Structures are given as C-alpha cells and as structure tokens.
Amino acid sequence: MKTITGAAMLRDALAAELQADSAVMLMGEDIGVYGGAFGVTRGLLERFGPRRIIETPISENGVVGMAVGAAIGGCRPIVEIMFADFVTLAMDPLVNQAAKLRYVLGRQASCPLVVRLVTGGGRCYGPTHSQGFAAWFIHIPGIKVVAPSSIADHACLLHAAVRDPNPVVFLEHKRLYARREPVPSDLPDIALGTARTVCRGDDITILAWSWMAVEAAMAAERLAARDIAAEVIDVRSLQPLDMATITESVQRTGRALIVDEAPGNGGVAAEIGCRVFETSHEYLEAPIRRLTAPDIPVPASPPMEQLALPDATAIEQAAFALMGTLQ
Amino acid sequence: MKTITGAAMLRDALAAELQADSAVMLMGEDIGVYGGAFGVTRGLLERFGPRRIIETPISENGVVGMAVGAAIGGCRPIVEIMFADFVTLAMDPLVNQAAKLRYVLGRQASCPLVVRLVTGGGRCYGPTHSQGFAAWFIHIPGIKVVAPSSIADHACLLHAAVRDPNPVVFLEHKRLYARREPVPSDLPDIALGTARTVCRGDDITILAWSWMAVEAAMAAERLAARDIAAEVIDVRSLQPLDMATITESVQRTGRALIVDEAPGNGGVAAEIGCRVFETSHEYLEAPIRRLTAPDIPVPASPPMEQLALPDATAIEQAAFALMGTLQ
Amino acid sequence: MTKQLSASKLRSAYQRMLLIREFELRVERLFLAGKITGTAHLCIGQEATAVGAAMALRKSDALTSTHRGHGHFLARGGNPDRIMAELYGKRSGYSGGRGGSQFMADYRLGYLGANGITGGSLSLATGVALAARLQNSSRVTLCFFGDGASNQGSFHECLNMAALWQLPVIFLCENNGYAMSMPVARSIAGGSIVNRAQAYGMAGEETDGNDLEMVYRAVTDARRRAAKGDGPSLIECHTYRYCGHSRGDPCVYRAPAETVSWRKRDPIQRMRRILLTRGVMAPGEHRLLMQETRRRVQQSVAYAEADAWPKAASLTEGVFA
Amino acid sequence: MTKQLSASKLRSAYQRMLLIREFELRVERLFLAGKITGTAHLCIGQEATAVGAAMALRKSDALTSTHRGHGHFLARGGNPDRIMAELYGKRSGYSGGRGGSQFMADYRLGYLGANGITGGSLSLATGVALAARLQNSSRVTLCFFGDGASNQGSFHECLNMAALWQLPVIFLCENNGYAMSMPVARSIAGGSIVNRAQAYGMAGEETDGNDLEMVYRAVTDARRRAAKGDGPSLIECHTYRYCGHSRGDPCVYRAPAETVSWRKRDPIQRMRRILLTRGVMAPGEHRLLMQETRRRVQQSVAYAEADAWPKAASLTEGVFA
Ligand SMILES: Cc1ncc(C[n+]2csc(CCOP(=O)(O)OP(=O)(O)O)c2C)c(N)n1
Ligand SMILES: Cc1ncc(C[n+]2csc(CCOP(=O)(O)OP(=O)(O)O)c2C)c(N)n1
Ligand SMILES: [Mg+2]
Ligand SMILES: [Mg+2]
To answer: Could you list the residue range(s) of the whole structural domain that residue A176 is in?
Structure first.
C-alpha cells in the first residue's frame, strides 16, 4: 500500500495506458512542460514525447473534434479539458459526432475516446470554473459517464475508460487532486457500470459520487456516532448506472438520500431518484431526498461557495431528517 | 377566431414584437429572403429591413455570443437556431455568459434574449436534426425554458419570452409548424411559469409539452371512450415549472404519467417525476410513470423513427396500464 | 506538375460523373414522389469536384464529406444500391436506415462519412490526419466542406492546428456560391476563402471546380505535399449547384439567369467534349454510357424498393460498442 | 494621424499605470498571504496596453476584458476598493463577491466585464457593436483578448461578421507571447495574429504594446475608423507579463533571461523617462506619485478587509432579473 494523491494516481494511470498501448495519446492545453493546470500530466511529455502528448492551442471545439477523428483513425485519445466549464465549447463533436457514430454507422465504427473534465467547486474559482454538466452527458445516448471519488478509482476507472470502445466523459473533481489515500499496489480491474459500496449500514442509503462521496463517508461516520447505520454507495458510474447495487441497498434500508454537488434542477440526482422510486417505491419508508446545490451559479466568495455546496454536515442533517429524528 | 398554423402564428408574433419595440431584432441563418428553413420569418426582412432581420453566416457560437452582447448593449435579440441540434455549438455563450450575467453582475446587467430552437423528430431528419436538449437548459440556473404545444401559445409564450428580461430558450417543434388550430383574435397575456390544462379529468394526470401534449390530448380522447377521465396538462414552461397546477392535479387523480419525446435518461421527465414524488407521494395510487423515447439517437428510417417516439397510442397504453387495467 | 490523366481514367471519371448526376436526378424525383422522406441535399452540377478529388486520392487515403455527400460517396466507389437503400431508410442501407442522407459511411473505402453538421467534419478529418501522423502512416485525409462551412469557428481552429503540426490533410472547399440562401458575397468577409490559407502560412490554391482535370491536378499536388510531410493545403473549387439547397427550396435567392449561365460551364458536358476531342470516346458512345448509367441507377432503386425495413427489435441495439 | 498626448494626459496615464502595477503586486502578495483565494491573473508588465487603449476611448464607448482584467478595469476608471473587495469575495465587491477576479464589471463605466472563458468576450463585444449600429449610436466597442484567445473559433466567426457588417468594434490583441505555458510560436500558425486581419479585408495594425503612446495612437486611429463607419480593426500589441500566468505558475516554460530582457522594455520605466525628458514630471516627483499610489492601493486593501461578507440569505437571490 502506497499513499498517493488523486493527481499522482491519474498520472500513473495515464502513464500506464500510454505505455501499454501505442494508440493512446493525450491532447489538451498546457499538458506538456507545464504538466497540466492541476499537474496531472507532469512528466508525461518528457517520457512519451510530443507526438503522443499533444499540447494544443486554446481551441476546445477543434481539439475534441480532432480527438474524435483520431479515434476514428485508430487512436485512443484522451483529452484534458482544463475546466469542465469549457466543454460548453465542444459539445458538438461529443454529442453530434462521437455519441452517434456507433449507433448509426454500426460495427465498422467505434470511438474509443476519453474526455477528462475537471469539475466541481470548493476552490473559489467562481461561476465559470466550478461546473460539472454530468447531467448533460447522461442524457446523450452513446456516451458513458464516470466520476471517481476514491483515489484508487482514479486509476481503476481511468483504465476502464481508456479501454472502453466508447466515448467516456471522465469527471475529475479538483478537490480530489490533492487528496491522499492509501492505495493497494495491484488495483482490481473494474467494469464501467459498477457502483462501489463505501460503507455498509441498514438504516439509510446515501448515494453520492465524486467529492460528494467523500463528504458522504464523513457524514456516515458522524451518523454512526449517533447510532444511525448509513450505507454509502459511491455511484461512480453515472452512465451506465449500477441499479442492481443501488436497488438492493435501498430496498434493504428503505431510505435513500441522493447527494449531488450540481444544481438540483435537471440534475443526475433527479434521474437516480426517479429510478429508485420506479424500482423500489414499495420498499421506501420515507420519501427519497435529493440534497444538491441550490439552483444558482457557484459563487466565488469563500463563505458563499461553502454555503452553496453540500457537505458532510448538510448530508448528516438530511440523513437525520430522513430517519425521522429531527435534530 | 382565425385558423392558423404554428409557423404563421410565430411569424405574426415576431412581427408584433418587432413592431412594438425597436430594440427587438432577429438573428439567424437564412431568415431573410428565404424566410427561415421552416418559413417562420417569411416576409419579415421585407417589412423590417436588414438592420433588424440579421442574416448570419453559419457561425452558431459567434452568433449566439453576439446576441448576448447585443442584449447587454440594450437590444432584445431573438436568435433562430435552424435545428436545435446545432445549439451544441453555442452552449458557451448561453451557459457561461447569458445565464450568469444577472446573478454575478447584479441589477446593472440583464440579458433579454430569446433563442428559438427547432426541436423534435417525426420528420425523418435523422440523428443530428431531431434533438431537443431541454434537459440541458433546465439544469442551468439563469435560463428559462418554454415549449408551446397549442398554436395560440406559440404567440403567447413568444410574447412572454421576448418581454422577459432573462435568456429564454424557446423550443419549437417542427411538427407544429404546419399544424392548424383556431386561435382567438385577442390572445391572453400569460406569464412564463404557468402550465395549461388541456382537458380535465379525475382519473389520471398526463403531463406533457410540445408535440407530446398534442399526442397526449389525442390519447385522452381515446381514453375517454374507454371511460377513463384523463387530465392532460401542457407543462409548456419547463423552467420555471408550474408545480402548483401539477401538484393539484396529481393529488386529485393520484396517478401521473409524464411524457417526453427526448431520451428518458437524465431528461426533463426525471425532474418532473422527482418533484411530483417529493410533493405528492402520499397521494399517489400508482407509481409515477415516465414515457419517453428509448435511450438511442433518433433514427432516420420512417418506421424506426415512428417506433422510437412516443405517440398517442403509446400514451393511451401507458395510461391504461397505470390505471391497473391491462389491455 | 502532375501528369495528364490517361484515357481510361478520363473515361471512368466521366462515367462516375454521369452516375452521380443520374443518381441525384433520380433521388430528386423519388423525393417528389414521396418514396424518400426526410431530407437530402443534391450535388447536381458539382460532379467534377467530387470525382476529380476522389481520383487524386489513393486507396489507403481517407475522405470526409458534408451534408451534400452522395456525390462524394459515389466518387469514392460507394455502392449505389446501399446508398439508395439508406435514403429509403431500409435495412441494407449503409447505416441500416439509421442515418439517412446526411449520415452514412464506408470505412473500408476510407469514406468516413457525410455529416449533418455544417463544418462538422473539418475537425474529424484533421483528427484522422493526426492519427495517421502518430501511426507513421502515409495516409492522407481529404476534407470536403462548403463555402458556408468555412464560417464555422472550427475552420479556423483546424486550419491553425493542421498548419502548426503540418498534418497530412487537404481542406477542399466546394464553393458553390451559396450556403443555402446565403451568397458568398454576404457571408465571407474579404470575398475569398482561399486567401485565408495565407493567414496560417498554408498552401492555398483556387481552381475551377467544374473542370475535372484542374481539380484532379490541384488535389494531386496537395496530396503529394501532404504525403511528403509538407503539410496541409486549402483548395477552393468554384462550382455551382443547379438544384435547390434541399427539397422544397424555391431558390428565390438567386436569379434563374445565373443558373443558366452556369449550365454553360456544365462539368459533364465539358468532359464529354474533352473525351470526344481527345478521341477517348466515340461520338455515339455517350448514349450507351448514359443508358448503362440509368440502368445502374434503376437497379439501385429496385434494390432499395425490394429491401426490407430495419427490424423493429433492433431499434435499441448498438448504441454502445 | 493622431495628435500627441497632452502633458496632463501623459501624466495621468503614468499614474494609472503605476496604480495598476502596484495594485497587481499587492494582489500577488495577498494571494501568497492567503488573504485572497480562488484565482487571479495579473497583468504586471502589460500596463501600457491597458492604459493606452482605455485613454483612446470616449466615455460613451464600451470595452470588454479577459481573465486578466484588473488592469483594464483600473485603466477605465474602476474603483480599486470595489475591485479589491471583489477579489476578497466581500459584499461591496463589484459582483458582491459572486464573480471574483474573472467576472466583474461596471456597466456605467462602459466596462462590460472580465471573462473567465478565453475568447468569451469576442462575441460579446461584437454584439455590443451590433447593438450600437442598430441604435444609431456612436459608441465604439473595444475588445481586449490574448494571443491564446485568437485561436478560438469565435475569433474567426466574429472577425468575419464584424468585417462583413463593418461594425464599430476594435479587436485589441495583447500578445504577451504566451497562453499560459504555450508560446505563440507553437500556437499561432504563420506566427502573426495581425496578419489574419487581411483574410477578412479588415484593417490591421501591429504595435509595441509597451509603448503607451503607440498603443494610444493605434487605438485612436481604429476608433476613428470605427466611428466613421469604416469598420472594425485588429490591433496586435506586443507585450509581456513578468508574473506567472496565475497563482502558482513556476514559469518553467520560459527562460528567466527572457523576462530580464523584457524588463528593459518596461512600459512604466519608459513612460517615466518620457515624462522626465519632456519635463512633464520633475525628477523628484516620481517618489511622491509612488507613495500616493501605494496609499491608494493600501486603502483598497483596508476597504476590502473591513468590508462584510455577502449576506448568507442572499445566496439564492437574483438568479433571474
Ligand atoms: C451547424 C449547422 N448549422 C446549420 C446547418 C443547416 N445547413 C445545412 S447545409 C447549410 C448550408 C451549407 O452551406 P455550404 O457549406 O456552402 O454547403 P452547400 O450546401 O453549399 O453544399 C446549412 C445552413 C447545419 N446542418 N449545421
Ligand atoms: C475556453 C477556455 N479555455 C481555457 C481556459 C484556461 N485559460 C485561462 S487563461 C488561458 C491562457 C490565455 O492566453 P491568452 O489569451 O494569451 O491570454 P494571457 O493569459 O496571455 O493574458 C487559459 C488556457 C479558459 N479560461 N477558457
Ligand atoms: Mg455552398
Ligand atoms: Mg497571452
């Protein structure tokens, strides 16, 4: 077991993929000598050279489109979008090209593409540097969406995403880059579409992903101290969803709290909430609760940003309320 | 009462707004002498001149960004996006600029902008000319989203949208352009955020919008013939949602069927489903049912497209099933 | 300089052009007859560009097309039966009926597909060229696009990156004077598309898109540069579509006289004259070729008519690989 | 040609430049001290461009800025107290703390705002110019953007439309040699940004961005053209940022010697020499101006420190107008 940060874990995983398959290539802004805005690609240019570590001008639409083309041409491109907010410039190649290729063109076509989006708040970067858009991508058939929370999963899910023959949107949370966790030296192969049970409990199911799963785990500890056994499920694969794991848990606990850092309206939590209800309504002992950011842009001001984003305390409170035990 | 098509109704409404306020201007591709790909703007260039009817090159991102700028500069731009699918190229100015201005910059800023998106299937235009993306926009705080189904509402909602000081995404369904309905000569002022009850009934609530509300109304007639009194609500304003009307109806009928032409995953139906459940779960006599397109791109082939999109028959069947009366 | 096309090549080019013309005319009628639904953009009048460019490419090369793609596909050797079946939405269509006119491809031919998004294939083509670079492949990629598409931001982004990285890609603009109803004079500031090559330090060439040999030569030269590692080229081919932009276009935005004057520069008639002058084709032969072509097109219609609809059960299959 | 700047104008330009420099240096320290969080991009070294351009505009004109916007805002007369408060995330900040460094504006000043999206303000500025046209207003809009931003597709789209419609807009590129770590030589094919003006038939001018008078003249000329209806201009100003791209940039991508050599072309020192040579400023006066400037900056810090946080209850207010 080594202890490693999210950024370093991703770097190792990228290096391993570059090493394993000469078709793998990286594209993005400042991913060369600068090492990426968050240091994820540091050292990769030196190691793999400028043909495979392709530093691009600031041309998100063209770059993602080229990555789709490179995937059609037989490569396995991995694109870094410095802040997920900028993927707004590259929706066309993802939605109208990458996502459709297989369904329309059939077996001749595949699009093994990973788009890494730096998501989330908590760094006071303000309204145009803190978004995620996971909800947009799950709505587009043909795109997979993953969002790791554990440091080990930064590698496991990246491996799975790179080897997947489909376009995968890979959501990395800024707050996880610097987080350190012990990680076993040989990581399991995991399939996209499986959730991870963070801790077990029979009283309530807390569904979360990305940084919110970290907050949920903290909340579960505090809840345990108050005699509430929360089961935390790190959903981690938002498309496809592991409904089997989610359903089993919710039907056992009878209570579901879904936590999402994004604004609630039209968010991923709504989809999960509906599905849980559809599969398990007879088992529910309390209404499903969504805990999300309010429907506002993420403010830059430190106390306001903190107020806007769900955290362990808010999760703990929401879980408490769901248990019928008002504080 | 005159009988008029959706396209002509929109044209009249646009003309009225251009007439009423010299700050109103139109931007879009082929909206001049061609009259727009669907004929909506026919005759407006001749009437209002090229300064206000601005035909643009094929530059969706720049055009929508310029419209945001023009709104900042004191105009009330209305942009036509020939097919909603192309708004993928213009997400940045909508999401990172227009949607944020008011919240961040406060009262000094407002962005009275209408973006008209031609949405939906049913015309065999294939995977990149049949989408809608309503779900994306409701997820972005600061954007309003409307989707008329009645011909009268094509005018009423357009008037409300143009006069609204916020960015409004206005979803027009291709199938409604040629539809004719009688329309009263003086149209009511309606506020964005109000639903429209299409027909009353106490057995089941069918929630739909845009073309699906037309299909739902047909289904309701057939259901009536089978002694089921369906209440059809044309949601029409997807953001803000008129939860008062929806809740009153669902709590009265105890059953809710939500119909959306878009793929179900992460769709608007999920948000409405969750909200209905959150507000009314104790009143529900059956689970909420979402009836949507499957999670696939819209195929071009006529029989396949028809199979993919919900219609009156599918709605009727789903409502029947929800009533516990299996066919 | 590129050498002259051989007699047999000229002949087969002519046949391809005839095939495209007849195919498109037939599609037009099938639309009017309600046999084909949805949309289709015909390339009647632009056959020389498609065929001239396609002939200059090697088998291992790739090309991307536009919404106006039937001609490009046929020029590259696409099977008329399967193209027609796709327009019908039938099972044996290139996309099994899922894509329609604007979304079909044959990767084995290196034909990477039409594109419903104006300008959408600019970045795809550039990316394919990037992949070729990474793979040390000698593949050159040609990207067809229209004058209208040149106004998309990705035109700038891709030309810039292609030039920076000296990618083996050929940007071939079919300037047919209009983007739907928008004339070039009102949509292209400065009036010229090829001029934009300069801004990127890229080779630029302007040519008569209705002259097959000139197109062939321009693309052959560009191909040679690309293959040698001398980077991308922008070629502007001046041409014209006689037909409307798509079904139901009343063409109110252009004077009938304009179309008439372009008819005088018809690429097919021009080729016929060349073939006759050079003795590549005997005077009576044209009629035979024409009959053969019409038979081929008729066969594709029969094929499409007889073909089955896609299986209902397949509707949700194959979204993911 | 534009006439020389008056003594008083030169003097106030110098003061503005000093204010920007001292403000930015202070922000840098406040970041290191943890007083300011989030991000900020400083314009140390680029003061002449901001001030020279702003001085050439009229009160009724508008300007849009970039992620590196403090200098532009101060040059246009933004209140240092409220800018600093915004960086602190405090209630009296220009955006009430909601926007931070990259998202603040003062519409009454015609300062339409910084922009967190590289290139994001290109289309906004062009749209403001379009509005001015519609309103028969004489307002000219100036759009600051960086060399990196010129690679965004919207650069192409907006220059094209601005040129087509002869809009009253000035595209002013602050070419500081880098976009974050990306040098111009590796990001701009053809090497020149101003060259791209030609492609659109647009007036283009290149100038020393560290020479206030040259910037002033170039923008004044462009402003005159725009106001007269002679259309947009592209101005490329060569300049340099001494500081890193943003907080925590180790500047590994450039040689220290490069920074040193640019220090010799420091815009502020250059102005000081001019003021002294022309007798606009007495030899000892600089010290006084500097003290005054530092006091002003210190006051802004005190203001921001003393300011309250935004009200918690206001969190969800004002999403819609
Ligand atoms: C992004 C996008 N915008 C608009 C359209 C609608 N559209 C289809 S073809 C076309 C005109 C294209 O003009 P050009 O590139 O010159 O090609 P041509 O039709 O002349 O062959 C337009 C506006 C589209 N398909 N995609
Ligand atoms: C769309 C987008 N892509 C990337 C970024 C991240 N980013 C911020 S500033 C910057 C460099 C901009 O370079 P340039 O335009 O030259 O301006 P400079 O920083 O040199 O002033 C980058 C890549 C961004 N903010 N927006
Ligand atoms: Mg054209
Ligand atoms: Mg720069």
So the answer is: 2-183
